[in-house]
Write a structure and sequence with these properties.
With 225 residues, the protein is of the alpha+beta class. It is built from six helices and four strands, in the order ββααααααββ. The termini are far apart.
Length: 225
């Protein structure tokens, strides 16, 4: 007899609410993605949830070999991930790209990279830890970050841009079709991207800063010391 190893059931994805067109005389509802589904980690222990409010600091630091890297630190001063360069022959500010992951976490409630940086992987559910927070999901999010950056570089890094090309948003949708974030709409991704680039431009222009995240309000605020 062959014995199959049982796996703990994967927590079900939040069900997306249907959207009805407003009837005659009714005002259309404002678009608030966080009202359409519960946070992806709502059923997990608090230490495995993305913090609903927190701050992180982007600090430029000189290395012994003369390079400038960006060190990302949490509220308690501990490092979040490794120091980053732009990893390019041309300094284009990509060393601040962790802000894009923070924007995904803030606006979409989804970012396997942010979970890794903050130590919030959902290890209590091995299947969620592997499929949603593991290496493949991280690689996909990093790929989205690089893909959008290439697009943004051709569009003044989205300064004064209000809409993203649908082809790019559709590609992101295909890349994430098997992940929990697939319930988010193209408009949600557009909001996340524009939010991230507004913050990125401030970090680039001021060579760092403190970023306040509010996942409940879906806002990122960049301040200086």
């Amino acid at each position: 007899m062959v014995h199959r190893r049982s796996h703990p059931p994967l927590r079900t994805r939040p069900r997306r609410r249907s959207r009805r067109q407003p009837g005659e005389g009714q005002r259309p509802l404002a678009h608030h993605p966080q009202e359409e589904h519960a946070p992806f980690d709502a059923g997990f222990p608090a230490h495995e949830q993305l913090p609903r409010q927190t701050s992180l600091t982007f600090t430029p630091t000189k290395t012994d070999d003369g390079r400038t890297v960006i060190v990302l630190t949490r509220e308690d001063g501990t490092p979040a991930g490794d120091p980053l360069t732009s990893a390019s022959h041309v300094e284009d500010g990509y060393r601040f790209h962790d802000i894009f992951h923070l924007a995904h976490a803030t606006v979409l409630g989804w970012s396997p990279v942010t979970r890794f940086l903050l130590g919030r992987k959902r290890k209590s559910d091995p299947r969620a830890d592997e499929a949603e927070d593991g290496g493949r999901a991280i690689a996909i999010e990093e790929g989205i970050s690089a893909l959008v950056f290439s697009y943004a570089a051709r569009h003044r890094y989205l300064a004064d841009i209000k809409h993203i090309d649908q082809e790019l948003l559709a590609t992101i949708g295909h890349m994430t079709a098997h992940l929990e974030v697939s319930i988010c709409r193209a408009a949600d991704w557009e909001h996340a991207i524009l939010t991230g680039y507004a913050a990125w431009r401030q970090l680039r222009d001021h060579n760092g800063g403190i970023v306040q995240l509010d996942l409940d309000q879906r806002t990122l605020t960049v301040t200086q010391d």
